[in-house]
Design goal:
mainly beta, Porin
């Protein structure tokens, strides 16, 4: 078989030479030779077609079923697209063996160290596998898993005073010495003592599982299943297309707890320049993602609803300017403005005047309360001589009630247990967060045609990020939660090997943890960090 293919190749080459050489002087003799070559080729083709498939070699059979870029997989029906994302990290923290709450000279305190959080490490940050099946012209099914999400022992970047499952420094992040001094299990199921054994996380292997209906009602599609509720911009953006190696505080929060079970409708008009989303979700747990001791609180994905109420979700974006950044005549660039919100009743108890440090009420140990979450963002990438520059900003405000036994009471009077140091049945609280970022991408700039190839692959970025991510029970009223703000200054460099499909990112974080109050001083933890991300997306 291989010999036949080689022969055909040789004959085709000979035919090409003959035709080329006969363009200028094709006499009768040359025409006859060409016709003879054509006949020989036709005879060989017939012999090749008559050859049984069973006589093919293993190599030939493999080539007949070869795969490559944009090649489709064989399925029973429909068209299957397989995608994925691999992110491998190396990170290093500034060394400090004392934790934020460990302030011996501030009166009452709890044992808190940073020894389990400041170790440099390699990490598989994401290992996503995504299957998209176009089963019908109007129906698409999507399933995405990420085995890397099952890990629970990695600290949060950019501030390691939290865990990979939460951006908040609460009782969840107290050191193992706390359990040793105050009895086993007083920390929540996500405490550092449990995290170092790999325990205490809501199942997160299944990320997305939804069905999308489209092309029936003009400008609209419908989606039902498990996916991220439509909150903000950075948190729901593809993890392959981040400006930095890691999201901001508020982006991480949406990415960590944003997935839920529900249904949404999406409308888009004027070439995607105006879009809106409206949805209904279960809304189990709480918007803070905190997990109560022996309670099903925390992340909202992969779990049943915990009451009969549902959350409502909306999102709107407008793009007044959305022009080609490479168009030299475009002086206006791209501008996107958006807002989103989410709200609903959480908890399942209407007892009024409940003592905030009393016994648990139900599985969530919370009275029924209204929870709300708002977010707004802006993106601008100017054109003209400054194209390549971009700016982003986003802010969020969240109000909800914490699960019990998740917030630290530094005075030890916030719990009904004799040991204290834990807040129970907390009152409703609100927190805010925001970030602003700026960057310059050489390949989108006016130097894209003149800069050397090695330089065009670079992008430089900077960010200021803040969030009220440190919580303690109030000294006067242990049912009230005091929230303190952390600020992180980030510098980043991105090197694009093949766009977002293959890139290397590096970022440095300078962390300013809060100082506390006159009654509750915190240790000034040294936890600046460096992160490198090696990425392949397909």
């Amino acid at each position: 078989m291989a010999g036949i293919k080689v022969t055909i190749g040789c004959l085709m080459a000979a035919l090409l030479i003959a035709v080329t050489s006969g363009v200028r002087a094709a006499d009768d003799k040359e025409k006859a030779e060409i016709e003879a070559l054509k006949k020989d080729i036709e005879d060989l083709r017939k012999r090749l077609s008559a050859t049984s498939a069973s006589t093919k070699s293993g190599v030939e059979r493999t080539l007949d079923n070869r795969y490559g870029p944009n090649a489709t997989a064989t399925t029973k029906t429909g068209k299957l697209t397989v995608g994925g994302l691999t992110q491998i990290w190396f990170y290093a923290f500034q060394k400090d063996n004392r934790g934020l709450f460990d302030k011996a000279d501030a009166g009452a305190s709890i044992p808190d160290t940073n020894e389990g959080q400041d170790n440099s490490s390699f990490r598989v940050r994401r290992a996503e596998i995504k299957f998209t099946m176009d089963i019908h012209e109007n129906v698409t099914g999507v399933v995405m898993i990420d085995p890397a999400r099952e890990a629970t022992s990695f600290p949060t970047v950019t501030d390691n005073q939290a865990t990979s499952n939460s951006i908040f420094k609460t009782l969840n992040q107290v050191a193992p010495e706390f359990d040793s001094n105050n009895g086993p299990g007083l920390g929540s199921t996500n405490s550092i003592s449990n995290i170092q054994t790999g325990a205490g996380a809501v199942p997160r292997l299944l990320q997305d599982a939804y069905i999308n209906y489209h092309g029936v009602i003009p400008h609209h599609d419908f989606q039902v299943g498990q996916f991220k509720a439509w909150m903000g911009e950075e948190g729901i953006r593809s993890s392959a297309q981040l400006d930095f190696a890691e999201r901001s505080f508020l982006g991480q929060h949406v990415d960590n707890i944003g997935r839920d079970l529900g249904i949404t409708v999406h409308g888009t008009w004027w070439e995607d320049r105006f879009q809106y989303w409206a949805g209904i979700f279960d809304g189990a747990g709480n918007y803070f993602g905190t997990v109560a001791l022996n309670s099903p609180g925390g992340q909202e994905q992969n779990r049943a609803d915990d009451n009969n109420d549902k959350d409502f979700n909306f999102r709107v974006l407008v793009r007044p300017l959305w022009n080609d950044l490479q168009d030299c005549a475009n002086w206006y660039g791209r501008l996107e403005i958006g807002a989103s919100g989410r709200g609903g009743r959480h908890g399942e108890n209407l007892l009024a005047g409940r003592d905030p440090i009393g016994a648990p009420i139900n599985g969530l140990d919370r009275e029924r309360t209204w929870a709300t979450w708002y977010d707004a963002w802006l993106y601008y990438a100017p054109g003209g001589p400054v194209r390549g520059l971009w700016l982003r900003g986003e802010a969020t405000w969240i109000k909800d009630r914490n699960a019990p036994n998740t917030v630290v009471d530094l005075d030890g009077n916030g719990a009904s247990s004799s040991s204290g140091f834990q807040q129970t049945n907390a009152k409703t609280m609100a927190v805010y967060g925001a970030y602003g970022a700026i960057g310059y991408k050489i390949s989108d700039s006016i130097w894209c045609d003149t800069a050397p190839g090695w330089l065009k692959a670079f992008e430089f970025a900077a960010r200021v990020d803040t969030f009220q991510n440190v919580w303690t029970a109030n000294a006067a009223d242990p049912g009230v939660t005091d929230a303190f703000r952390t600020i992180v200054y980030t510098g980043g460099v991105n090197y694009y090997i093949k766009g977002h499909d293959a890139k290397i990112q590096a970022m440095v974080n300078s962390v300013e943890n809060p100082e506390g109050t006159a009654t509750h001083h915190f240790h000034d933890v040294k936890n600046d960090s460096f992160v490198m991300n090696f990425q392949v997306a397909f």
